[in-house]
Automatic annotation (TrEMBL):
Protein name: Phosphoinositide phospholipase C
Annotated ranges, domain C2: 441-570
Bilayer-spanning residue ranges: none
Boundaries of every PI-PLC Y-box domain copy: 354-440
Amino acid sequence: MSTYRVCFCFRRRFQPASNEPPAGVKEVFQKYSEGGVMGAEQLQRFLVEVQGEAQATREAAEAVIDGMRELKHLNVFQKKGLSLEAFFRYLFGDDNTALPHSLGVHQDMRAPLSHYFIYTGHNSYLTGNQLSSECSDIPIIKALQRGVRVIELDIWPTSTKDDVEVRHGGTLTTPVELLKCLQSIKEHAFSISPYPVIITLEDHLSPNLQAKVAEMITNTYGEMLFTAKSEFLEELPSPEALKMKILISTKPPKEYLESKTIKEEDQAIEKGAEDEAWGNEVPDLNARIGAISKVEHMHSDHHHEEEDPDEGDKKPHQIVAPKYKHLIAIAAQKRKGELSDAFKVDPDKATRLSLSELVFEKAVISHGTEIIRFTRKNLLRIYPKGMRITSSNYNPLLGWMHGAQMVALNMQGYGRALWLMHGMFRANGGCGYVKKPDFLLDNVPDRFFDPKAALPVKKTLKVRVYMGDGWRFDFHHTHFDTYSPPDFYTRVGIAGVPADTVMRRTRAVEDNWTPVWDEEFEFRLTVPELALLRVEVHEYDMSEKDDFAGQTCLPVWELRPGIRCVPLCDRKGETLKSVKLLMHFEFEFL
C-alpha cells in the first residue's frame, strides 16, 4: 500500500503500483507460447510475424532467451524459454526500442551537403536568453555532444580593440574568449559523429583582427580545417568526403552592409501566448502562413527586412585579410533586391543564403518552388527572428519541407519546437545529417513538391498506447500530486506537412503509477518521409495546469513495427532513467 498524508490526523492509502502485463501482451504471449513458455521457435515466429523482423533467425531468438538468464533469480526465467513475465520484461527492455540501436548511419553519405538536413544551432554560445545571459563554451560542448553539426559564433573586438571575443552584439550578454570556443569545438567536434562540423561566423572585425582570427583558426585546427581552392565551390562536397573536417562559413566581406530595423510585422504575427508551462504548442502551419499572408498584404508597400546576422558591420570597401578570406570554405551570399533574385541558381557556384524565420515564412507563400530548386544545389539557413529574446523557437518543419538544410534553433530554448529538432536528428544513427527525401531532390523539370497540395495518403500508421512505467522510480511519490498517486494521460500525434499534422490523447488513468490505457490511434500520412511521431505524457490536475511527465519525438520513417519500448525524455530532451511507454506500431501501405 502507498500512503499519502492529507492532514495531520488523516492519511489516504492506495493500492501499490503494479506492472502486470496489459491484456494485449497476454494475448500475444498466449498465441506464441505453449504451456506457459515461449520457446526459441515460437519467439522467432513472434519476431517475424508481429515485430516485422523478417530476417530474424532461430539463433537470434535463442540469443534473446539467453539474455534473459540474468532474471533467473527473480523466478521469471524458464530453462526452455520465456515465461510471461520474462517476455514482458523483454518487451520493456532496451533491446526492443522503437528505433533500432543497431541501424547506425545507414543513409548514403556521398551526396553533396545540400542533399541533407543538417543539425544546426543558433547563437550557440548563449546559456540563456538573448539579452542578458552569459556567453560560454559549455552550450557549444553540449550541442556537439548531442550531435549538432553547425555552430554559430558572433565575433567582436574586445574593449581594448586588440583581441577577439564571442558575444551577442548590442546586448548585456557577458563575452567569452574566441580561442576558448575554438578549442572546445576541436575537442568535442567528433565525440558523437565523424561527419563535418560547420562554424558559421558573424564577423564584426577590422582587417587586423580578421588576420588574428585566421591565425587562431589555423593554429587550432591545422589539418582538420577544410579550405576551398576558390572563393566559391562549384558543388558542395559530401559528408563522407568531409569526415573529421571543420569548415568555416561566412560572407566574403567586401561591401558596406547597412544595419536594418526589425520588422513591425513580428509583433503583428507573434501574438500567441504560452499555453503550457513547458512551452508553446507547435504552431499550426496553415494558420501561421495565413496570418503572414494577411500582414504581408497590409504592408505590401513597406518592405522591411530583418538584419541578417551573417552580414556584420563592415566599413565601405574594407580590405579583407587574405588569410581570413582563404579560410572561408562555404561562402555565404548577401541578399540583394527582390526575394526572387536571392533564389536564382548559379550553375557555376554553390553558396549559402541566410533568412530570418519571418522572411522565410513570407517567401514560401510566393516562392515555394524557387526555394526547393535553390536548395538542391545551395544551402539555406533559417534563423530565429530578433523578437525571440527568451530564446524560444519556431516550428522547424516549414523549413525542412521546403528543403532548407540549416534550420537553426536555440538549443537552450527547451520546448516542443526543439523536441521536433531532437526527433528529426534521431534519424540516421544520430550523426547530425539526415538525407532529404527524393521529392526534394528530384531534378525532373517542372515537377516540384508542394507541401500545401492535397496529396493522396501513402500509408497509415496505427499506434496503440498500452501502458507506461518508471515514474515511481524517477520521481518522489508526491511530485505530481501531494495527496494521491498521479493521473497520467498520453498525447500522441504527428508533426509533418499540414495535412498530416494532428494530436490525439488517451483518457486519464486515475491514481496509478503504472497506467494502462490500451488505446489505439490511426494516422493517415500523405508525406510519411517528413512525419515525426510526437509522444507526451502529462498528469491531469483539476485545479492547476497539468504537470509534464515526459516526452519524445521519433522519425516515422525509422519506426520499427510491432510491440516496442519507447523511452521518454525530460523537458530538456535528456532521457529519463526509468520512464518508458509500451506501444504497438503497425503500418498499412496504400
